[in-house]
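quick one
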Amino acid sequence: MPGRLQHRTALITGAASGIGLESSLLFASEGANIILADVNLPGVQRTADLIKERFPNVKALPVRVDVGKEADIKDAVDLAVNEFGRLDVMFNNAGIMHPEDDTALNTEENIWDLTMTINVKGVWWGCKYAILAMRKNPVDEEKGLHTGGSIINTASFVAIMGAATPQLAYTASKGAVLAMTRELAMVHAREGIRLNSLCPGPLKTPLLMNFLNTAEKRDRRLVHLPMGRFGEAVELAKGALFLASDDSSYITGTDFKVDGGLTSSYVTPL
Ligand code: NAD
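structure w/ nicotinamide-adenine-dinucleotide:
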């Protein structure tokens, strides 16, 4: 059985940890060659080693990328095209949730700006260079390769619902990701470039668990989760794979929620 991403090239940001790490492994298991991008170089080197060990037939190149720097993103996309001849999937997944991000009254401007640079500008630049590359993708009918591609931008459930435990810059940044993704999906729909947001619910990854470091903080949230548990990064990776592959060929512009029912809930089961 050919993999769902056979002959495809993917670039994944935040590939050292959490959703990005699990997506890298899953995409590789489906045959994709991957550029593993992260500000944490030893982290993506570890991801590359895991892929080499488990899926020796695919190529995975680790590269240090700060998504808050436009030139880094451009270089990573150029690397994908130079090494593999094309870019089919761009997963703009890296993001931060700063510990000093708080209410409107308590958040410092530098925290706001840093969050917006990484979470919003990083996604914008990721879309920009991916679109430029995807337009030029060579056609190979035999391998089922065409121009265009799939761009997936990681947003969050907090872009859809309010929380009385605020991280205002983070929430605003993820709202921007949803709006930007929808608009770009419309602009590029006739070029065969699909853009979707992936909206995770709260997950058991370092990003959230480093912050929810007491049982009290975790319980404050768990009561609102219909399934009574935090999500796993691999459950998000499966959503990302669906959006990356041709299985979602008629899906663009969506806020694709993988949240255990959180954004549909009012009263949750006891
Ligand atoms: P994680 O902390 O496990 O992984 C994030 C990765 O991004 C890390 O490897 C980190 O080094 C990298 N990164 C951070 N800043 C970067 C930068 N400037 N340039 C390049 N790489 C950078 O987090 P995760 O939970 O896997 O989060 C992935 C995405 O999912 C983020 O956009 C996050 O906002 C979003 N998200 C997470 C949750 C959750 O509960 N964990 C919920 C909703 C949305």
